[in-house]
Design brief:
Largest sheet: 7 strands, mixed
Order of helices and strands: HHHHEEHEHEHEEHHEEE
Shape: elongated
Helix content: 25-40%
Amino acid sequence: MNLLLAEVAQATQRLADAGVPSPRNDAEELAAFVHGVKRGELHSVKDADFDARYWETIARREAREPLQHITGRAFFRYLELQVGPGVFVPRPETESVVGWAIDAVRAMDVVEPLIVDLCTGSGAIALAMAQEVPRSRVHAVELSADALRWTRKNVEGSRVDLRQGDARDAFPDLDGQVDLVISNPPYIPLTEWEYVAPEARDYDPELALFSGEDGLDLIRGIERTAHRLLRPGGVVVVEHADTQGGQVPWIFTEERGWADAADHPDLNNRPRFATARKALP
């Protein structure tokens, strides 16, 4: 075992003792980041090339600063995104939400599907949709000016149409034309603040986390936006907390113009997102 791998083993224990959820992964990611190699190449770093700044990054992670803030990057499906203070860090569970949406769009008999991402944050969802549905036309909206600094960096050079605004009244020029609306909105109840992991509670923007007493305020607004934007037969996909699986599909009722409202699990088989289809006239 070379020096770096020995240090990684010690760092893993320190992170585990600090309550970091994925200590080995994070210790290796930080080692790779500091030494400019891939995780699978850590064994190739010579002892003389060990960089003591590694322990500075471990101390920051030990204090529960998000891994992605330390490295300045987040990986999402096939993307590498720039992230940092002011923008929500995309989570792995959202990848299954996007996967479902991509399959739904591909199943549509539409040559150039029109897609809208509400509350885009880093732009992860919008960029993944644009990348994996090559002929799609993707529009994204974000309210926060702080988040938009990062979003603009990420969407630069892509064909995503990015706008600043409120998801509840966004894209009036697209009313009745959209094939799929997708969103990972804030959905944590204000009453749950003390139970939120430090990485999210202390570093993710509150605007991206909390939404009213039951966490569903913005999802209710998105339901109205989605119904306005979608063409008849178009689909909405909304992420929610794993404790809200029994509640969100009921927001998309037949009385409000929806059909086939359903809930779906993530890769851990926890309720993760709801879908519905705009009813035909």
